[in-house]
From TrEMBL:
PANTHER family: RIBOSE-5-PHOSPHATE ISOMERASE
Protein name according to UniProt: Ribose 5-phosphate isomerase A
Organism: Halobacillus faecis
GO cellular component: cytosol
GO BP term, pick one: D-ribose metabolic process
SUPFAM superfamilies: D-ribose-5-phosphate isomerase (RpiA), lid domain, NagB/RpiA/CoA transferase-like
InterPro entries the UniProt entry points to: NagB/RpiA_transferase-like, Ribose5P_isomerase_type_A
Entry superkingdom: Bacteria
Length: 232
């Protein structure tokens, strides 16, 4: 039986969408790749939300059957709002996926995780044969780390250990991400904290080196995955 309540009867996107016109255009591009029967990884963040909106429109108009693998509860609720059937990595491997990014350099290396969904985003990206990265031109940087710190998802018990271990790295600044009201740290869906770490120089090896620190669940550095950058 379907729920008759209405509270969840709206798409979830909190706040204004910056650069909306350009995000809309790049979101439109990825909607053309959807084929009947596809299992698609659904990214998180505002650009992914706009892409989902456009994909859902095609699915409804052309009566396509697809399965969605959401990378966050936010994405899962939006899939539900748009009537898309969701599945998980336990049951399906995505044929392809799409996601946004905070920074992308000329080699296609990414910083992600402003929305804190980096762990599931990386699981889905690593599982998919290909992921389209949807970025407006404000996301392109000459030097990775130029604007954004690298988010680390960290088990709360490991905060001191991670902070101490980071002193051996060549990092400039470490900050715990705080909730807007500043009354406590931001917690991820898995109940972990986010430590934002700034580096002046980001070698390809850094993702693995940071991941090797005990207590680091995942990093927001995405290097060497099978991605295609779509941009406007
Ligand atoms: C969330 C992400 C987002 O994809 C990234 O922050 C880009 O967001 P937006 O499309 O809203 O600019 O990595 O964890």
């Amino acid at each position: 039986m379907k729920w008759k309540n209405k509270l969840a009867d709206q798409a979830i996107w909190s706040g204004e969408i910056s650069n909306r016109d350009r995000k809309d255009k790049v979101a439109q591009q990825v909607s053309h790749f959807v084929k009947n029967g596809d299992v698609i990884g659904i990214g998180s963040g505002s650009t992914s939300f706009l892409a989902l909106e456009k994909i859902a429109k095609r699915v409804a108009e052309e009566r396509l059957e697809i399965l969605a693998v959401p990378t966050s509860k936010e994405a899962e609720m939006n899939c539900s709002y748009y009537g898309l059937t969701t599945t998980s990595l336990l049951n399906h491997q995505p044929d392809w996926g799409f996601d946004g990014a905070d920074e992308v350099d000329r080699e296609g290396r990414l910083i992600k995780g402003r929305g804190g969904a980096l762990f599931a985003e990386k699981l889905v990206m690593a599982s998919a044969a290909k992921t389209y990265i949807l970025v407006d031109d404000s996301k392109h940087v000459a030097k990775l780390g130029e604007k954004f710190a690298i988010p680390l998802e960290v088990d709360p018990r490991a905060v001191h250990l991670v902070e101490t271990t980071l002193q051996k790295f060549d990092c400039d600044h470490v900050q715990m991400r705080m909730a807007k009201a500043k009354d406590g740290p931001v917690l991820t869906e898995a109940g972990n904290v986010l430590m934002d770490v700034r580096f002046a120089h980001i070698p390809d090896t850094l993702e693995k080196e940071l991941s090797a620190i005990p207590g680091v669940i995942e990093t927001g550095l995405f290097i060497g995955y099978s991605v295609e950058i779509l941009t406007v």
